[in-house]
Amino acid sequence: MARKVSIQVLADELGLSKYAVSRALSGKSGVSEATRQRVIELAKSLGYQKASFSQPSETGREPDAPSPFILICMRHIHSGNHSYWQRVLNGMLMSCDQQGLPYVIVSPELEAAKLTGEPESPQHMLAPHLDWTRCGGIVVMGTFPHSILGLVARAERPYVLVDHVDPLISCDKINNDNIEAGSIITRHLLSLHCTHLGFITDKAWSASFADRLAGARSAMDSPHGTEARLTEWRIPYGEPGWENALYQQFVHTEPDKRPDAWIGANDDIAIRWMRKLQTEGISIPESARIAGIDNVEASTLVSPQLTTVNLCKEELGGRAIEALLRRIERPGAPMESIHLSTRLIPRAST
Q1: Of 80, 191, 258, 308, which alpha carbon lies 20 to 30 A from 91's?
Q2: Do the domain assignments include residue 350?
Q3: Domain contains 349
Q4: What angle do CA 286, 287, 288 make, to 5 degrees?
Q5: CATH number of 51's domain
Q6: Mean pLDDT in each 10-residue stretch from start to end of the chain (350 residues)?
């Protein structure tokens, strides 16, 4: 007797999830057009009879069955960052709109991950007000503590991390190539014959800061950097007035041990340090060269304009949604760690 052709049979034959096959057969959003056609062709060839094959509507939704939503986790501290995080978020939302996918944005409280003695589910601890039966997948933006990421991992939904890496969490990760960014800006300053580079950073602020410093150090290890040196200047980036404390450290450093070029771990650090030096009578770039990383709009509004490294923002968000849909369609596929390439933008500050 011929076996009954079910959604599970189709999923096994194609290496897809039952969710992806069901969405493809019903014409709903959440799967790529290429995947939809593969599913329909196999269903026809195997004689799948349960339902007719529908094409997606203009909205990608069926009136009697709302599309699953994408849950986007974003920290409150990033919601006001219009130059970077809001642009990454915009890329995600544009991609969701193009796919006809609804979305929900939440900011899981850090306290939610603490042990309370309550037998609550990870889903309830992350977002108790949501209907989790409709959650198709999760995107986690930026740095969250491992305890929060642990809840996401146990929420039984496909998920991806964006602009963050946690070695203890096994999932798809979408990042800018921060190591490349640190290396590019360092090599640029070395090409200008700078002999002592100061890297201003707060490694506790972001994993990307640590990667950028690692990239700078790797460039110093190249033959081009053997006669130059790199020093790390640490700041409490989240606290006001760090520029004044850093300047006091600078003036108490012997003149021959002061950097002749500076790299900010991001553009904001570089701009604030440049302004501090200028108020103290130090001209840029005549007395010191300064560069940043990010290419935010403010880098073109200062004088002199800031040399920087362009990092993709909207593209990073859009790529995250693509990765999540891939994970939904192919749950057994190998995990991916994607790094978007960067680009040097030389300007007058160097």
Answers
A1: 308
A2: no
A3: no
A4: 100
A5: 1.10.260.40
A6: 66 72 73 80 75 49 64 88 89 89 86 53 89 94 89 93 88 96 97 96 89 96 74 95 96 95 97 98 97 95 97 95 92 93 97
Same domain, 183 and 295: yes
Max CA-CA distance within the chain? Answer: 89
Structure tokens at 91: 């890329």
Last residue of a domain, one of 37, 66, 95: 66
Query: 301 and 188: one domain?
Result: yes
- pLDDT computed for residue 44 by the predictor: 81
- Same domain for 115 and 12: no
> Token pair 């939809």 is at which residue?
36
Residue 8, both tokens:
């599970």
Query: 182 and 246 share a domain?
Result: yes
Q: What is the total count of domains within the chain?
A: 3
Check residue 224 and give its pLDDT.
Answer: 54
Domain-located, residue 206? yes
Q: Would the pTM count as exceeding 0.90?
A: no
